[in-house]
Design goal:
Elements: H1 9-17, H2 30-39, H3 44-55, E1 59-63, H4 70-77, E2 87-91, H5 94-102, E3 111-115, H6 116-127, E4 134-135, H7 139-151, H8 170-184, H9 194-213, H10 219-229, H11 243-255, H12 257-271, E5 273-274, H13 278-285, E6 295-298, H14 306-317, E7 321-326, H15 342-350, E8 352-356, E9 359-360, H16 365-373, E10 381-382, E11 390-395, H17 399-402, E12 408-411, H18 415-426, E13 431-434, H19 436-447, H20 461-479, H21 483-502, H22 510-518, E14 521-522, E15 529-533, E16 542-547, H23 562-576, E17 579-587, H24 595-598
Parallel strand pairs: 1-7, 1-8, 2-3, 2-6, 4-5, 6-7, 9-10, 11-17, 12-15, 12-16, 13-14, 13-15, 16-17
This protein binds adenosine-5'-triphosphate and magnesium ion.
Length: 602
């Protein structure tokens, strides 16, 4: 039955305007997508949304469950606006943006899809007269490292030039050198380069947080940011009598954050060099103009940080129409500084009218029942025509043989995915880990400083140094009560150990290692098995989904604040609701899969 009750004139008018695209690599052309939309079994709730959007000029926020048809709806909405309207879909991450882009549904002369970072990047490019800004992920690290080196150079005249000096008395400056000697040189203990690194890492995190939250870096604001996200500095092995000095140093560092940001901005202005956070931060900071859009369709709107919202707000203030879709129960990016009450904040700032939708069209009925019966969602309802669905608890044994092309495997931690992917790869089963644009680079960049050149592969030495330093850092975070950060680092460290043990020994240089590891990662949809952290599985779906480490979920052990507890529960709901027909809940450890077990023959 074709339940399409919507007045089709808008679609028809639009259709006349579209020219079919001939490339076979796209599943759709804009015109075939139009036919698909016409025949799609939209239900009365979705049709009411179409109608509201057409009959009014208001801005809306659509609140629907996981699999509630939000992204599907966004793709159809492109037909509802006047011919020639410049429409931009703002996707949450690169993977969702690429999937939409490659689906072929967009008429690229007037419609586009971009992440908010991509949107900011194009604003920066316009501001640089069309020259593409160069992305240098270690930009802030370089600024801070050179300033810290200067401060502890021991060289009078030089250290006064560092950005911290003006916030420190000359006596303190002298004592700091001693303090730093204490931290850096082998005094009754092995060389401990971590402390200097800890000072640098701490500042990098705070600068990143300021950029994402657009926090004005006054001392008061920074202290509140630190307490909300528990970003306290931890230095290992600091003897008690150094504590007052450490406090003075900490404060000088915080006072100098505006100087770091100023240097950061100047590097863009003078050298056209940015980092990832700059894409959403600099257009706001430099007040760059928003142009060239009539409508913005925002997906996954429950998880935006203040810099992203403020970027979209620039368009809103110019009269660009905003339609946002999301699900407050899928807020999972608090750790990346998403606005805590993002939903209400958006409604307030963009004057959005909320429309609710009731069903999931994705999950089979038994999957929905499982989620509700276990108290993971109290109002998750399957659409009547959904499949029956199947849920089973399984052991990790023979996982490698069980998995089929098209399956989606999700995990709270990354290390089990890396273990599984390497095993699948060694057994010649095509599989990829999602996160080439972020996770892959994070892992490589963690290890890189320990290998002096790209050709350096001096046995185990670089790796051993890295391993030692990282374990200390993990311990240091734990001692400081920063358990969640310790987990994140331990997870990445485990990923690197697996890669070094299973891939590293087949490589003859760091460059070769990097290349081989890169092959395991992707951001695109391909035909093989997809392995994804729950965070990166946002918006995804598959017929068959495996949830690793299920018995340890929700992983609330390390969560302290209410928002962290809530987000862990949300993560479990996101994981379970990726499945259309088959949901396998794997009883495996949270951090490490057992290699022999997953590779065991049935
Ligand atoms: N009216 C409908 N009837 C049948 N199937 C539908 C309908 N609307 C959407 N679907 C299907 O439901 C599935 C989920 O849709 P979609 O991915 O748009 O949901 P979503 O709300 O964006 O999910 P998520 O919250 O995970 O991002 C898709 O396979 C889509 O084709
Ligand atoms: Mg979606």
């Amino acid at each position: 039955m074709n339940s399409f009750l919507f007045p089709l004139t808008y679609f028809d008018e639009y259709f006349n305007y579209l020219s079919p695209r001939k490339s076979s690599k796209y599943p759709f052309t804009p015109s075939s997508w139009w036919f698909h939309c016409k025949a799609f079994p939209w239900n009365h709730e979705q049709l009411k949304i179409f109608e509201a959007i057409i009959k009014t000029q208001s801005n809306y926020i659509v609140n629907a469950k996981a699999g509630g048809g939000k992204t599907t709806l966004l793709k159809a909405l492109i037909f509802l606006f006047l011919k020639g309207s410049k429409i931009l879909i703002v996707a949450f991450n690169k993977h969702i943006a690429e999937t939409l882009d490659k689906s072929g549904v967009l008429d690229k002369s007037t419609q586009g899809v971009s992440t908010s970072h991509g949107l900011g990047y194009s604003m920066l490019m316009k501001n640089s007269y069309g020259r593409k800004p160069k992305v240098e992920e270690s930009k802030v690290r370089k600024i801070i490292t050179s300033e810290i080196e200067l401060l502890f150079s021991g060289d009078h005249g030089e250290k006064e030039k560092s950005i911290y000096a003006k916030y420190l008395s000359s006596e303190t400056l002298d004592s700091l050198c001693e303090f730093f000697d204490f931290l850096e040189t082998p005094v009754k203990r092995e060389k401990n380069p971590l402390n200097k690194k800890a000072l640098i890492d701490w500042q990098i995190e705070i600068v990143g947080a300021c950029k994402k939250t657009l926090t004005s870096p006054t001392l008061e604001n920074l202290e509140s940011l630190i307490s909300t996200y528990r970003l306290n500095l931890s230095l290992l092995n600091v003897e008690a009598h150094w504590n007052p000095l450490q406090k003075i140093l900490e404060q000088a560092i915080l006072l100098a954050i505006p100087d770091v940001l100023e240097k950061n901005d100047q590097i863009y202005i003078k050298m056209n060099l940015i980092d990832f956070d700059d894409m959403i931060y600099l257009p706001n900071k430099l007040n760059l103009p928003a142009t060239g859009k009539n409508v913005m369709l925002v997906d996954e709107c429950q998880d935006l940080n203040n810099a992203q919202i403020t970027l979209i707000e620039k368009y809103y203030k110019l009269g660009v129409r905003i339609i946002a879709v999301g699900d407050p129960r899928q807020s999972i990016y608090g750790f990346q500084y998403a606005v805590p009450e993002c939903w209400d904040e958006l409604k307030r700032r963009f004057n959005l009218i909320e429309i609710d939708m009731s069903y999931t069209y994705r999950c089979g009925k038994n999957i929905v029942n499982y989620i509700v019966d276990n108290g993971y969602h109290n109002n998750f309802v399957a659409y009547e025509k959904n499949s029956q669905g199947y849920v089973e608890h399984i052991k990790q044994a023979s996982l490698v043989w069980r998995l089929q092309a098209g399956d989606l495997v999700v995990s709270r931690m990354n290390a089990p995915l890396v273990r599984l992917c390497v095993s699948l790869y060694l057994h010649k089963k095509p599989a990829k880990i999602r996160g080439r644009a972020d996770l892959f680079w994070e892992l490589i960049n963690m290890l890189k400083p320990y290998h002096e050149t790209q050709n350096d592969w001096d046995g185990q030495e670089g790796f051993n140094n890295w391993n030692q330093a990282t374990n200390k850092k993990i311990q240091e975070l734990k001692n400081n009560g920063q358990e969640s950060l310790a987990d994140i680092l331990a997870d990445k460290a485990e990923c690197i150990c697996i890669l070094m043990n299973d891939i590293g020994d087949k490589c003859s240089s760091f460059a070769m290692f990097e290349k081989s590891v890169k092959e395991l990662f992707t951001d695109e949809s391909n035909g093989g098995i997809i392995l994804s952290s729950i965070h990166r599985a946002k918006g995804d779906e598959a017929d068959t989904v495996y949830v690793l480490g299920y018995s340890n979920l929700p992983y609330t052990n390390k969560a302290v604040s209410d928002w962290e507890l809530q987000q862990e529960e949300n993560l479990l709901y996101v994981a379970l609701s990726r499945a259309k027909n088959n949901l396998f809940l794997v009883d495996s450890p949270l951090f490490k899969l057992d290699k022999t077990e997953i590779e065991s023959v049935l």
